[in-house]
Each structure stands twice: as C-alpha cells, then as structure tokens.
Amino acid sequence: MNKESTQEGAPGEYAVVRKVALELLCETEAGSRFVDEVLSEHIGRFERRDRHLLQEISYGALRHQNTLDRLLKFYVKLSMDRQRAPVRWALRLGAYQLVYLSRVPAHAAVNQTLEGMKSFQGIGRKDVGFVNAILHRLIGDITRKTEEEPAEPDDPSILPVRAGYCHFSRPVLPLVRLDQVDHLSVKYSYPRWLVKTWLDRFGAQEARALLIAGNRTPRLCARITARAPSSAEVVEALQGDGFEVEAGEDEQSVLFAGGGPGPSEALEKGWIQFQDLTAIQIGAALAPPAGARVLDLCSAPGTKAVQLLERLGRDGSLLATDRSESRLALVEENLSGLEGSWKAATLPAEPASIELGESFTHILVDAPCSNTGVLGRRPEARWRVRRGDLDSLAELQDGLLDAAVRHLRPGGRLVYSTCSIEPQENEERVAALLRRCPFLVELDTRLFLPHRVDSDGGYYSLLTRSASKED
Length: 471
Fold this sequence. Notes:
Blueprint: H1 11-30, H2 35-39, H3 48-63, H4 65-72, H5 85-100, H6 106-117, H7 125-141, E1 142-146, E2 158-161, E3 164-168, H8 180-188, H9 192-202, H10 204-213, E4 221-224, H11 231-240, E5 245-247, E6 253-256, H12 265-268, E7 272-274, H13 277-285, E8 293-296, H14 303-312, E9 317-322, H15 325-335, E10 341-346, E11 360-366, H16 381-384, H17 389-406, E12 408-418, H18 427-436, E13 440-448, E14 458-465
C-alpha cells in the first residue's frame, strides 16, 4: 500500500506544501533544471511527513500530466497549454491528488490546492473559482477506488493509480483495439513516440511492464563510502536516527524505506552518498587502481567522481570536467574535504575543441542523454525529449567519445555510460566508435532495464586501448 498522508485538519500547514509544489512545478517547467534539483532546495524546511507529501504530489503531477490533461480537457474550454502556468499546474496538482491518491480526502486536496495558488502574483478570485469548479466536476465523475485488478485489464473507464485503480462514470481512455499506442500513452502517461518505440522494440507485454516501471517511485539508495565503518554500523546508525533502512544488493549500498532522510550521523560524517544501485555499478565498472590518472569527462553532479577518487590513494589523481560552470560547482562541493588529489575544469561546448594537454590511464564518459532509463526519478524527462533529439544527442555523444579517446593512454581503459536505454545512444554509439577506432576493444557491457532490475535503467560499455603506441 502506498504511504500517503491523511489530512483532516491543519489546512494552513498542508496548503504550504501545495504552494511549494506549485512553485517548483512552475519553475521546473520554465527552466532547464529537473524537479529533483529544485526540490532539494525546498524540502529541508519540512518535517519528514510533509517532505514525503511534497515529493509525491510534485513528481506525480509531472509524471502523469498527459493523463491529467486528457481528463481535464473534458471540463475546460481552453487547452491546458493555453492556461497560465499557476492555473495549469493547480489543475494538474489537484487532479493528481483526486485521481491517484487514496488517503487524501477530496475536500482537503481541493481546498489546500486552492489556498496554495492564492499567493501567486496575478492570481485572483476568478482563477481560484475556475480551478475549484473544474476539480469539483472531476470529483463528480469518479465513482470509486479499488485495490483489486479490474476484470477487463484495458477497461477504458478505469485508470491504474498509486494504490490500485480509479473508476470513472464514463470512458476516459482511448479504446485499445482502435489505437493501442494512444491507449497506453494516456493510461501510463508517456509521449506517443516513446510508447511506439518501445512497442516495436519489446512487444506489447514487455513494453507495458517498462511503462509501469517508469511510473514507480524509485526506492532511495545510498552508497556506503570509504569514510564509513562497516556496513552493519552504517545501517545501525541510520536506524538509530529513526530511518527504516536495510542493506542493499551491493554490499556497499543501503536502501531506505519511504522518503528521503533528514539530518543523520551517517550523512553528516560522509558515511553515505545518495546514489542509485545502477549508478553505483556503472561508477565501479572503470575500477581504476591506486595511483591511476583518471578523467571524469562529464562529471556533474560529482557522485561518480567521489566514487572514483576514493580508489586512487595518495599517488593517483582525478580531473573532473563539465561544460556547465554552475554544475561543476556541485562537483567541487562533493569532492571538497576528501582525501586524494583532484582538480576541476570547465570544458568548451564543442567536444572537438576539448584539449586537456595530458593523457589518462582511465576515463569515464557518463554522457548527456535522453534519460529514458530514469523516468521514475526524473519524470519530466519524458516530456522534454523528442524523437529527433536522439540524433542530436548521438552526435554529441560521438564527439565526447572521440575527445575521450584522444586523451586515453595506450593500454588505458574507458567506460562509456548513459542513463538511457535507447540503442541509438548506447550500443550503436559504441559500435560506431569501434569502427572509427579499431585499436579499441570492448571488454564488458551491460544494459539495465528498469522493469528487469530493482533500480534505475542505464547502460555502460568498458573498453580498452591497445598497448601499442602505433594505433
């Protein structure tokens, strides 16, 4: 059963949660940052119960906006994209709570969302009344919520929600027999092009499992760092601070139940670093020995850089680079205070212009990508990427790989990784690199599919350069 807050009483307190949710949703839509980045700036001001609610409704409204917009179009004259941002997101936020959550009373969801939107500049009584009227019309079309699977899996009047199913008095989904792509696109809230891509690649059954996996709230995972005592002591310390945790699949990881933690001894002492299990495995794939000279080419926000630096000892060194100065500052913050030699440097925007003036024994290229493996963690990524973006991303990825090879010493190792699951960004990029650079050999590769692993999706390829200086 999904953990939701029951909210009888304390309307002002919960209205603040809705207000902050609306603020960060509008900010995420307007900018280039992901919701998790914006959320991290606000979440510390709330108690643990409210942090969970804030994360749930913010991520949920983003993740399911396609479905929510299809529902709301029955009641609004102007399309959702023509509504002003605070009104648009108040409608989605309220509708998400009404449709997808089971333990938030309908009146609380509506009233507290309305209170939250009142503080926005330019929002007047007419706007509040409009949102109130639309949400109450939606309430009138919801007949019940159940935990039991429906007799007909593709019943157009039933939506899968957080803890079961929401039943409507009318059809809300396209008929699957008439348009399977549109049915799945609305039912699970994905762009049509991505649904069709996965249907063609995986078939109906596995594509559906992949769509469902991308809508799950990912379980929070942390890597146990080199600073920490034993794994058992880390788990004991976290439990002593009131967190529900258990050892992860990887012996150097720990899994949290529920939302993200607040202050804890383990976090303050640097014993843990929040990082998904797939990212931990990708970061470990390069495996530089003590004394290695390592380049982390696309380093921000720096979690893998920390993981690499821990292995290098006193004689090794790490160069962390990124195109974004602001994001590189996050890398420097993560690396500051750690033992070991490291530097950070800003890269030129064009990979062809990258020239660092030295070579490296080990290089990690954790490339910018479509994020299709981490849609549960970055729900807005599904709306930001278009089919044509895969071509431009592939061009960038090829350029970064070529830059990495230019800096790789004979006998050196290179890991190329993404948090995408698309072959155009993964296997096809490595195959093209091997055609351009026959002196490279692929030693290992792995694709993580989120419906097959209990972690994020992603990909890596481990390559080595021949020891000969005459490639």
